ABC-2 type transport system ATP-binding protein (Lentibacillus halodurans), 313 residues
Amino acid sequence: MVQTKETIIAIRDLQKSYKDHQVLNKINFSVKKGSIFALLGSNGAGKTTTIKILSTLLKPDKGSAVINGLDVTKKAEQVREIISLTGQYAAVDEGLTGRENVRMIGKLRHVTNPNKEADALLGKVNLLEAADNRVATYSGGMRRRLDLAMSLLGNPPVIFLDEPTTGLDPQSRLSMWQMIKELADSGTTVFLTTQYLEEADYLADQISILNQGEIVAEGTSQDLKKLLPQGHIELGFHHEEEVGAAFSLLKEFNPSINQESHKIVLTTDGSIKQMTDMLNRLDQAGIPVAELTQKQPTLEDVFLTIIGEKEGA
Ligand SMILES: Nc1ncnc2c1ncn2[C@@H]1O[C@H](COP(=O)(O)OP(=O)(O)OP(=O)(O)O)[C@@H](O)[C@H]1O
């Protein structure tokens, strides 16, 4: 379990302002070794600023950020040796082929066998076929994968991905997600920022939501979903009289009737046990269910609820 692993990134009371604009207001979080951590937030929330501080590109005003026991401001050079950054900073040479780009970076980083490692990484990101084409001909998804391959040179233990799938089509996004999962499975710690709630939901072991420079919620996606009101299910029936009978039978689940669809809406705790209990009762009373739809809260709902509560406070 991720929870038992040791902490590799720890941020304490981190603050950063650009002139009088406070971007980070005492943020705190920690990341476990080998896990995927997602920092979630809308445009301008301070995600890139956090990544820049962690990757030693920017100094915080106050507070501390430590990676693998190394303070990012005091031991910047050592930190740079164990991290890699991809995203808005891609330094890809358009005139070179994919393979040439990876080999070049491999040589710059003094990788022991840059040609061999370049090919292994191009295979890992599914770019072997296009490896000898010039990058100028690559699609957005291929560029992201090349960028990822270049960041993986030298096998860094910690990788920062700043909005890795922004602007990608659904298929490229899915393939990026698979690569990110594989990376974490092989032991790399992945720190990613995203505006996509479903991305954090799918990938992250741990999520922190950043809003206006503050962490407003944190936990697993399941934890965050629990912050919301319970889920609902809707039951459809073949005949109107069955709707009435089912309504009486399921009174304790706080039923209501959707006037448009004539379906019964029930509040649930999301457990299989409760769902089975409801369906068994209907079955024993000889009322066949024609349709069942379940609405689970999404991270989008969580985000809107938390932000809404804060703004309404
Ligand atoms: N160099 C800078 N000088 C002044 N203000 C800045 C600078 N860099 C960022 N900001 C401001 O700080 C705030 C946070 O920016 P940041 O890039 O960290 O947000 P973000 O969460 O990464 O947003 P996005 O998703 O748009 O990239 C924004 O209001 C931005 O305009």
Notes: Residues 18, 21, 23, 41, 43-49, 195 surround adenosine-5'-triphosphate (CB under 6 Å). The mean pLDDT is 88.
